[in-house]
Structure formats: C-alpha cells, structure tokens
Amino acid sequence: MSLFSALSVSASGMNAQRVRAELLVENIANAETTRTPAGGPYRRKDVVFQSEPVASPFAGVLAEAGDSESQGVTVSDIIVDQRAPERRYMPGHPDAGPDGYVSLPRLNPAEEMVDLLGASRGYEANVASMTSVKEMIQRSIDLLK
Questions:
Q1: The predicted structure's pLDDT at residue 53
Q2: What are the tens digits of pLDDT across the range 115-128?
Q3: How many Å apart are CA 116 and CA 20, to the nearest integer?
Q4: 16, 118 in Cβ contact below 8 A?
Q5: Cα separations (Å) of 65 from 2, 39, 40, 72, 136?
Q6: Confidence grade of residue 11 (pLDDT, cut at 50, 70, 90)
Q7: Is the distance from CB of 17 to CB of 119 less than 8 angstroms?
Q8: To 5 degrees, how large is the angle CA 127–CA 73–CA 112?
Q9: I need a labelling partner for 27 at 20 to 30 A (CA). Which of 48, 97, 113, 143 fits?
Q10: What is the pLDDT of residues 42-72, one digit of tens each?
C-alpha cells in the first residue's frame, strides 16, 4: 500500500464516520418526536458500512507495480428501525390516542451517545492515521532534498 492510498483509506473512514455521527445526532434530537411528516413517531436510523476499493492518484502505476488494491469504507445503506414504537400512558399529550397512550420512538439516548462517542473515536483514529502518513511523506521529501 502506498502512502497516498493510505490517505485515501483514512479519508473514506472519516467520511463514513461523519455520516454515522450525523444520523446518531438526528436520532438523539428526535428521541421524543411523536409526529413526523410521514406519520407516526420518529424511526431510529443507523448506517451499514461496506468495504470498497479506494482510488488514489497513482492507482494505475501502483496496479502495474503489483501493489494490492487498497480497501476503504463506505456507507452502503441507511436502515430505518421497523420495530413497533414504544407506548407510554400520557393522557394529556396532544398525540395521545383515545386510550391515553402516546407512541414514542424506540431508542435509548444513552445508547445513542455511546455510539456517538464510538463514531468520534473512529474519526479521531482516521485523523491520527492521516497525520502519520503526512509526516512520513514530509520526511521522505526532506530526505530527497
């Protein structure tokens, strides 16, 4: 793997973790949303990651040199939770049914926060990797001076 391919792999990881973090924040923000434009309560969303070959500026040259293809990550799908909503007895709520129960999103904000911390750590790991590769490239250039 070339240093430039390593940068592409880290960049793909950063992008995937950014998408994941955006969805987790959306989930947290809508933890109490009982009415959406689609009808019913908000539905939790999550990402599915998939590996993919990454392209680098020197991919053609590296392929001729026999370098193996670098694998990055991409968001292949966004899944929406299809479980039945949680029902709470809240007779005074504007969205309460005739029985006094309100349908709320089935998600736990604490679990979403833990997942958000994991996404943040994944993003930070990719930033650290990119920084290391950048330093290696800079040292290589300094040696050639």
A1: 86
A2: 999 999 999 999 99
A3: 8
A4: no
A5: 11, 56, 56, 20, 21
A6: very high
A7: yes
A8: 75
A9: 97
A10: 999 999 999 988 765 555 555 555 556 778 8
- Nearest Cα to 41, choosing from 51, 55, 27? 27
**Rounded Cα distance, 9 and 55, in Å:** 9
Contact 73, 18 (CB under 8 A): no
Tokens of 135: 């330093």
Model confidence over 82-102: pLDDT tens digits?
Answer: 999 999 999 999 999 999 999
pTM to 2 decimal places: 0.82
DSSP state at residue 14:
H
Cβ contact 93:58 at 8 Å: no
